[in-house]
Amino acid sequence: MTAANSTRPDIVMIMTDQHAARILGCAGDPFAKTPSLDALADEGTRFDNCYCPSPLCVPSRMAFLSGLEPHVSGVLGNDDYLPSDIPTLAHALGAAGYNCQLVGRMHFYGPDQTHGFNRPIGDIGASWPGAAPPDIGPLTKGRGNRGPELEHSGPGDTSYQAYDQAVIEQAMKTLDQLIRQREQTGRPFFCLISLFCPHPPYIARREDFDQFADRLPPPRLPAPRVEHPAIAAWRSAGKTDEVSATAVAASRAAYYGLVRMIDRLSGKVLDRVAGRDNTLSIYASDHGEALGERGLWWKSTMYDESAKVPLIMRGPGFESGVTDRRVANLMDLSATILAMAGAALPGHCGHDLRSDGSPQISFSSYYGGLMNIALPPQRHRMLRKGRWKITWFDGQAPMLFDMQADPDETGDLADSPDHCDTLLELSRDLLAGWDPARLARVQRCKAERIAVIRNWVKATHPAEPYRWIDPDKARNRYE
To answer: What is the pLDDT of residues 180-239, one digit of tens each?
Structure first.
C-alpha cells in the first residue's frame, strides 16, 4: 500500500431521486420517519442550504458528475447526452487510482452508459429519447396530464420499488468486494449507489403508506393569489389545479412512505461502512419535490421545495452532529470528493466544502424538458448568494427573495424601490456568462436533432444492454 493510498478515503455515496431536503427528521420534519439518515446526521455534518445545479434529473446529475453547469456542458434537459469527451468525477478518480463503481441509475442517456464507472446493475429507465418507459402499471397509460396521475397515488407495489431493492442487494455485494480489495491491495474505492425513489408515481408499499395515511397535515403554503407568469404557466401545463383533496392526501402519504423506504434501504449501506476508518459516507439527492406546497408538484421551479437537496456527510473532515448553514451546491460536493481523493477535473466550478473560505453562492438553471409536460422551454436561472435569492426568467420579470427575513419565499422584492441596488448587483452576477438568447438557439437545434433520434428509436428499437428488467412482474400490482 502506498503512503498516498493509505491516507485517501474510501467514498460511499447514496443518491436518490426527488427527495426534498425538508422531509427528514434531522431537518425538523416532525412526521418524517428517517432514523437511518437522522443517525448519519448525528454522526456527521448536514448541509442545510444545498441546492441542485438544475431542478431536473439529467442536467442536475451531469453537472454533479462533470462540475460544469448545464449551459457549459450542453446538458440542458432530460433528452440531452453528456458527451463522452467531457470527463466526469469517475474518470478523474479512476485516473487517480480509485476503483469507481456505480450501482443503480445515473440517468445516462445515449450510447455512453458508463462515463468512467464500472456498472454491475443497469438503469431502470430508457437509454434513448423516445424509448418505452419502464412498465409501472396503469400509470404508464395516458401520461401527459401529470396532475391527473396523482389520482392514482396510494398503497401498492411498483417496479421502481423492486429496482431499488435490487440495487441495494447488489450494492451490499459490491461493497463487500471493494472492502476486501482495499484490505488486500490498498486501492481506494468510490462506490456510488443510486436509487430511483422517492420519485413518482407516489405509490408506497402498504406497510410504509399506512404509517402516514390520515396523519399528515395538508400542504403548508397555499397557492398565491397573484403568481409569477412562469409559475402560473407551469401550474396550468401540469394541471395541478385539478388534483383532488383526496389525491393530495394520498400522494403526500405515499411520498413520505417512499422516503421511509429509501431510509430503510440506505441504512443497510450506511451500517455496512459505519465504523470503518477513513471512509466518507454521503447521502444526497438530485433535486427536490414541491409535494403540493403552493399548489405545485414535482420539481422544475426555483422555490426551495424544488431546488434544495439533502446533503449529509460523515467521515474525515466533517464534524459530528453539525448543521452547516452555508449556501452550497451538488457541484461543491463533487469538488470536495475530488479534493479528498487528490484528483482534479478541468473547468470544475465547485468548491471544497471543508474550506471555510468557500463562497456562499449557488447557481441553478432550468430549460424545460420535464417529460410529459406540454410547455415551451422556460429558460430561467437562479442565484442564491448569502441571504438573497434571485431568479431571472428569459423574457419575463425576475423574482427576488430575502431568504433570511422570508424563508418561505412569499414576498417577491423585485419591484421594491428599496432593493433596486441588490437586484442590479445580483442580476449582473447571474447574467455573467449566461446568454439565454444563445441558449434558445441551441435548444432549437437540439430539438431538431433529438427528433431524428426519437424517430430512429421508434423505427429500429435499439438494444439497451444496461437496462434493468424487473424479474418479478407480480411486483407491479396496485391495491
So the answer is: 999 999 999 999 999 999 999 999 999 999 999 999 999 998 888 889 999 998 888 888
Question: With contact defined as beta carbons under 8 Å apart, do 226 and 130 qualify?
Answer: no
Nearest of 148, 155, 150 to residue 248 by alpha carbon: 150
Run of H or E residues at 428: helix 420-431
Q: In Å, how far from its chain's centre is CA 324?
A: 20
Average of per-residue pLDDT across 396-418? 96
Report the predicted TM-score, pTM, of the whole model to 2 decimal places: 0.94
With pLDDT > 70 as the criterion, what percentage of the chain qualifies? 93
Quick one: which of 90, 62, 67, 87 has its CA closest to 77?
62
Neighbours of 26 (CB within 10 A): 20
Whether the CB-CB separation of 414 and 400 falls below 8 Å is answered with: yes
**Distance (Å, whole) CA 68 – CA 60:** 10
The H-or-E segment that residue 250 falls in is helix 245-273
The CA radius of gyration of the chain, in Å to the nearest whole number, is: 21
Other beta carbons less than 10 A from residue 382's beta carbon = 23
Does residue 314 contact residue 281 with C-beta atoms inside 8 Å?
Answer: yes
Q: Which helix (H) or strand (E) holds 364?
A: strand 361-366
CA-based max dimension of the chain: 66
pLDDT tens readout for residues 143-186? 334 667 899 999 999 999 999 999 999 999 999 999 999 999 99
Instruction: Please state, in angstroms and as integers, the Cα–Cα distance from residue 394 to each residue in 87, 366, 367, 410, following that order.
Output: 30, 11, 10, 21
Specify the pLDDT at position 137: 56
Residue type, 6: S
Distance CA(386)–CA(391), nearest Å, equals 14
For β-strands 388-393 and 322-329, DSSP reports them as: unpaired
Taking Cα atoms as reference points, which of 436, 360, 445 lies closest to residue 403? 360
Looking at residue 374, its pLDDT comes to 60
Q: Where are the beta strands (DSSP E) in 147-254?
A: 154-155, 189-194, 203-204
- The DSSP symbol for 295 reads G
Assign 3-class secondary structure to 30-71: CCCCCHHHHHHHHHCEEEEEEECCCCCHHHHHHHHHHCCCHH
Are 65 and 82 spatial neighbours (Cβ–Cβ below 8 Å)?
Answer: yes
Residue type (1 letter), 388: W
Beta strands 380-385 and 388-393: pairing type?
Answer: antiparallel
Please calculate the CA angle 339-345-350 and round it to the nearest 5 degrees.
Answer: 65
Nearest to 64 by CA among 108, 121, 9, 20: 108
Element of type H or E holding 312:
strand 311-314
- Calculate mean pLDDT across residues 4-11: 85
